[in-house]
Amino acid sequence: MAEMKMHAVQYERYGGGPADFKHVDVPIPSPNNDEVLMKLEATSLNPFDWKVQKGMLWPIFPRKFPCIPGKSILPLVFLGTAMDVAGEVVGLGSDVKNFKTGDKVVALLNPASGGGLAEFAVAKESLTVARPPEVSAAEGAGLPVAALTAHQALTQSAGIKLDGSGEQRNILITAASGGVGHYAVQLAKLGNTHVTATCGARNIEFIKSLGADEVLDYKTEDGAALKSPSGRKYDAVIHCASSIPWSTFEPNLSANGKVIDITPSPSTVLSFAIKKLTFSKKQLVPLVLIPKSEHLSYVVNLVKERKLKTVIDSKHPLSKAEDAWAKSIDGHATGKIIVEP
């Protein structure tokens, strides 16, 4: 019997960007005992994906070529490498109990298997959740890495209760119009928070519409200095941007304020260690995403209830995945970039 093939996009070396993409026919993956096979309906890109291609995590990612973007080698802890997908279950491993063929799902891909720029993919049952009919495939695909990063930063790192209880906290969210940032604004406003956000001038009204109390144009003097228009000091910063030094954050923090860096660099980790050793009350905290299915179900249900929305910057067919990749590299997307097979 002939082996079943699927269309996929892959690259074979570091660098090159979207110009190095190859459209190929490869075997449809088979699910292991604890996996589901999905026919993909939507995949969202994360900046980490093209950073891997640029070799910014060499020699860890990718471990071998050719690489279908979205492929990773970390089984438990995700740094944003597993691509976000939504699709329909078309195959089941022998140990899968909670899904059946025909189910619509949202998932983080199995890090040992193929990536999301393909027609089919397999995912661990433990990182797959049901997608209700009220949530479109594109809306669901935007959620896993970006919304879970925002959720973990707010609830675990910043200690915000999303039921609105507790004392009011002053929160700053940088790069608020991006994938993680636009979810962070919405989730933060479910809690008892005053949210200040930064973005480009063209997105100020958009960020206000998501619920931000104050919005700074990052290119202005006050925006670059991160100064709250109402003079507030921040109890926590969800730092989704880059190239902002600690010296800019520090005077804007409350006595026990912390900066939660969602894309920590080696210098972030070093700063974190130094501040721990010196018992500094103001902290720089690196965030490493540890995804949990219950949290993914939670944000999917928030979308169902219209308490959270996935803002879609653009949609691209798989045959034009290069365009989506280039747009992600450009760094000015508002919300999520979606690829559809």
UniProtKB/TrEMBL annotation:
List the lineage, top down: Eukaryota, Viridiplantae, Streptophyta, Embryophyta, Tracheophyta
Organism whose genome encodes this protein: Xanthoceras sorbifolium
| Record protein name field | Enoyl reductase (ER) domain-containing protein
InterPro entries named among the record's database cross-references: ADH-like_N, Chloroplast_QOR, ER, GroES-like_sf, NAD(P)-bd_dom_sf
Q: Which Pfam families match?
A: ADH_N, ADH_zinc_N_2
The coiled-coil segments of this chain are: none
Q: Where is the Enoyl reductase (ER) domain?
A: 16-339
Please name the SUPFAM superfamilies in this protein's record.
GroES-like, NAD(P)-binding Rossmann-fold domains
